[in-house]
Each structure stands twice: as structure tokens, then as C-alpha cells.
Amino acid sequence: MKRVVVAIIFVMVTLTAKAQSYVGFLTDNYSGVHGVIANPANIADSRFKTDINLIGASGFFANDYVGVGFSELTGSDFEFDTDANLYLTDNNNFSGNIDIMGPSFMFNVGKTSSMAIYTRARTILTGNEFNGESIDDLDDSIDESQDFMVNEGDFYMSGNSWAEIGLTYAQVLMNNEQHFLKGGLSLKYLQGFGNAYVTGKNVTIDYDADGATLPDSSTSGTLESTGDLYYGRSGDYDDDDYDYEVPDANGFGFDLGVVYEWRPDYGKYVVKGTDGKTSVMKNKNKYKLKLGLSLTDIGAVKYKGGLIDNYNINNTITQEDYDNIEDSEDLQNLYTFVQSNADINAKLPTALHLNVDWNIKNHFYLNLNTDLTLRSSGENTMRTVNLVSLTPRFESKWFSFYVPISGYQYSGLQIGAGLRAGPLYLGSGSIISTFTRSEIKGADVYAGLKIPVYYGQPKDSDGDGIPNKEDGCPKKAGPIENNGCPWGDTDGDSVLDNEDQCPDEAGPVENNGCPWVDTDGDTLLDNEDQCVDVAGPVENNGCPWPDSDGDSVFDKDDDCPNEIGTVANNGCPEPVVTEEVQKSLNAYAKTILFTTGKSTLKDESTPVLVDIISILNEYPNAKFTVEGHTDSIGSVVTNQKLSEQRAQAVLQFLVKGGISPSRLTAIGYGESKPIATNMYKDGRQKNRRVEINLAQ
Known about the structure:
Blueprint: H1 2-8, H2 35-38, E1 48-63, E2 66-67, H3 70-74, H4 80-83, E3 85-86, E4 92-101, E5 104-109, E6 113-130, H5 132-137, E7 148-176, E8 179-213, E9 219-233, E10 249-262, E11 270-272, E12 278-280, E13 289-312, E14 315-318, H6 319-323, H7 328-334, E15 336-347, E16 351-361, E17 364-373, E18 387-395, E19 399-402, E20 405-408, E21 412-415, E22 417-421, E23 424-428, H8 431-436, E24 442-454, H9 579-589, H10 606-617, E25 624-629, H11 636-656, E26 664-668, H12 681-687, E27 689-694
Parallel strand pairs: 25-26
Antiparallel strand pairs: 1-4, 1-5, 1-24, 2-3, 4-6, 5-6, 6-7, 7-8, 8-9, 8-10, 9-13, 9-14, 10-13, 11-12, 13-15, 13-16, 16-17, 17-18, 18-19, 18-20, 19-22, 20-21, 22-23, 23-24, 25-27
Helix pairs in contact: 9-10
């Protein structure tokens, strides 16, 4: 009796699938064109000039229903009933896939973008929400004389095989020193090869061993079932004369992703070319921390003209009915059956991927990757299995080795190993746990060949860290700032051009290689000029002489530097001839004696005149009149002439004594200005006089 249930349910769902492939290998920065599988942004700023995949394949199987040891599984005496351990729940799942990557290649488009063209063939089976306890109840070892109950409820199974031709474009979006961002997009044309699915809704089966009484009064078992079964497929696989043809099925899909890199030591990888532009070394990984985020497998394959069978199994059949079931036509006679033609959409296993990669030191890395399905269980829907994987790895250009430690949603913890050696890559995400654990619930393996063309270490003949093709002096070491050339000394002044502010003119070190100039044009060079912007004499160190009191007499010539004076008086204020001085002069002048009737000075007048000279010298800028006077004895004409001659005689004595003639004027007044009466001898004596007065 149990054969019919197994035929309807279990045989259709023993395999289901997930989309994880190449576990461990995809963490490698040298995975090349394979990087587009996890994140299309990976191929931008890669270590490859080009990467050509020849062939690669990955296979995976996992479940949470049954566990078995590897040695027992491969032994010739393996018995499922005795050697397998069952983990029965009301929600068991199965998973498995095959992913073949055919001829594919990637290449760079300029310095900041890359493209890839790739081909893949994929087969995925997904099954979810099967009641393992009910399935176990259907085991043939159970005596058919016993009652049993199967409460399967809802379950889903779908299988899809298709090919992809993908075009990926990746571009550097930001390159801001320590912060680097790139993005990528893959567009995929999908060609379907075959699709089938089974969906159960509210399925229950109740077997009653004594449910029916036969004509001979004996009893027979009955099977009462409820619910609906849906069986859709792209071709009539049940037809014995079915001849496979590629179905009319196609579709489009896309992947997209971004990658951020933190590059704290970015300066080590920057090269400045002779054109002044900077570039970044392509042959090295430059990040300390990398974060990747991507969405993959968005889309569906549309199969035109598919077949969909709907079985309503609300019925009760007998043991005899069950024993007579040979094929699907017999099932159609027992249950309500409707078949229709319709287009079938096989939805791709859309997933979200988060990747964190830490460069521990040099060639050693630690990678954390998560795969999260974005598809819920449903009709003809493929789902990835949620995954968290921690992968330490050693990575170099020609060899990498990795040990992924992964936690799978269905099969639990698995430990694997993988390597890449030149063109060969192979590994397994579960090989260590497969051979070291007493039982396994899943396993995977991958292998492939490729032709990698890496960026080489740029040739640097002079060892200055600048590749020859970017080095202005490839055979002489020099700094990046000078395009790889050593700094020269063009003007031969011992100051190198990078520090010489006047590289074409010789100059001393203390003036940054520039010759000293005479900014203010005072013949004293600026290095010796204490006032470089104001002209001044050499004897005052190039500074103009100061004039503290502003009297136009420089302090060096000014006898009174803090008092306004005159040039003639050496910068000192002119003395003022007071009335007392004037009286003193005239008092002296009145004592000047002449020979009677003549202009000849008597010898006894000399001391008086010397004193007058001393007084006049005290007022060097004052001008005076020397005035001669007579009495009224004699003619007016004679007196006038005599007064003039006597005034002139005094003036000449004063000039000879050092008084400037420009300061003196001789005037004769004759008898015209008496100061006393001429009637008496005493008065006439007073009128015979010489006066020295301040010129007005």
C-alpha cells in the first residue's frame, strides 16, 4: 500500500538544491572571472590583465533528514535502514546542485573598468517543508496490517536546468586615497533545458488495515487521502515515447553588487608618471579591509506550453485498488484529475550576499561570508540555503590555500579545504568534516582549469619604487615628486633644485639658492642691508638716516636731534636777539673810538670789537646793521660821508673777525639821527657814535 504514496510524494522529492558553488575559492582575490558569481563588482581593479576559464564544475548535496558516515556510505555492505541515522521533523529539507562554468573570460577596459563574458550550465533542485516523520511511516518495513497516518500538509519541490550567457561590467566609483568603492552589474540571457515541480496542499493519508470487508467476509485495508497535488513540467516526461528536445524556454536575469575597500597605506601603491598623473599599482592587493554586498540571480526562465497536472486526492481506495496501480493513468482513474497547458515560470534562487575580507598581514587573510535567500517557499521556486562561512586563507599570485568553516542551514557545520595552483583550482567546502566526522549530512566538491594572465611586478631597475615605464630616470633612483629622477643642481650652487628657489641662478644656501639682490637700489645687497625695502647709505647699513625732530637735519648732523631747528644752526633752534642783547651791543658800540675827523679805529677799540664779534657769533643766523652817526659840526655832506666810512670800518673789522659779510650791512646816517643836542660838547660826543642793530 505504501508504494503509491512514495510514488506520489517521496520519489519526486529525494533531491533538492542550493545555489552555493566553489566554496572557499570565491574568497580568493585571484579567483578571476569566477568573482562575478558572488559579486559582479569583484573584477574591477583586479590582479588580472585577463583571466580565461576553460572549464570548471561544482557539485553540492545537503539535507537535514538523514546522516551517514562516509566509510559506511562507500562500503559494499551499506544498508540504508541500518547504517543511516534519521533526523525526523515535520519540516525536513533536501538540497543539491551542479554548477558548470564553461569558457569565460574577463578583461580590463581602461584603468578603472573591466568586463567579463561568461557561460554557465546549472541544475538546481529545491525541496522544502517535507514531513520527515510521515515519510518514515511509509517505510516498507512497516507491517501493512498496522494502521498509520501521514499528515504531510504543504510541501514544495522544484527542479530546473538552464544555461546562462552573462555580460558583466564593473567600474571604479570612488578612489579617494584611503577609501575605494567599485560597483558592477551582470546581465544574463537564460536558456532553459528542463523544469518540473511538485506542490502539495493540505495532504493527509490515513491507512486503516481493516477498513473494508470483502465478499468472503475477510477484511482489507483502505487508504483515505485528502488534499491536492500539482505536478508541472516543461515536457511530457511521463510519455514512454518522449524524445527530449530543447524546450522553448528563455528569460533574463541580473546580478548587481558593490565593494568598498579601506586602504590605510594607499600611498605605498601610488605611482606618479612623467605626465604628472598618478596611477595605482595593479599587481598588489591594497586594502586592509574589504566589504562586499551583492544581489544575485534576480529573474526567471519562462517555459512556454508546459503541462500542469492537478490531482485532487480527496478519496478512499482499497488495498486492491492500490495493488493495481501501475502508472499515472491508474492514478488518474482513482482521483479527480485535471490537466492543462500553460506557460511555466521557473524563478531563479535570488540571494543576498555579504562579504567581509580582512588582510591580517602580508599574504594572510580572514574572510566572513553570508548567503541569505530572498525567496520564500512556493510553487516552482528555487531557494538558496542560508550560509555563514569563515575562511582563513593564504593568498599569493600563483598559489592560494583556504580552509572554509561553514554553517549551513540544513547540514550544519562543515569544514573544507581548497587550493589554487597556477591554472588549477580544486577543493571542497566539506572534505575535512567528511573524513573526520562520524556522519555527514552533505558534501560538495569543485575543480577546474583556467588561464590566468596576471599583472606582473613592474620592473624597477633603479629600485626607487617607481616602475620603469613611469620613471623619468629608470636607471637612477629618485623620488616620486621628481618623476623618479634624482634632484639636480642646475646652477651649481650646491643647493639641489627641489630646495633651490632660483634653480637657474647660483645663490647661497642661506638665501635658498637665490643670489642676493638690492631691493631698494642703495648699492647694499639685502643680506647686509638692514632696511631692504628703503634706500639708505652704506655707512648706516643700508638704512636712511633718521630725523627724529623732523627739521630736515639728519640726526647724525643735528646738534639738537630732539628739537626742531634749522639747517644753518645744525638742527638747533635759532637763538633770539633780545632787547637786553641789543642794548649790550649798542653799549659796546658806543665805546668804539675813531681818530678825530677820520674813520680810522683807535687801538683801544679793538677789545670792544672783539667782544661784539663774540656776541654776534652767538646768533649765527641773525643779520645786523652797522650804523654810523656824527654830530652837526661840519657840513652835512662831510658828516654823511664820514658816518658811512666809520660804519664800513667797523663792518670790515667784524668780517675780519669771522662774521659773514652776508650778515652785516653798513649804513651811514650822518648827523640826521642825533640822540642828544649838538649845542654842547657832551651832547655832540654822544651823537658821534656807531650802533649795531638787529636787521628788521
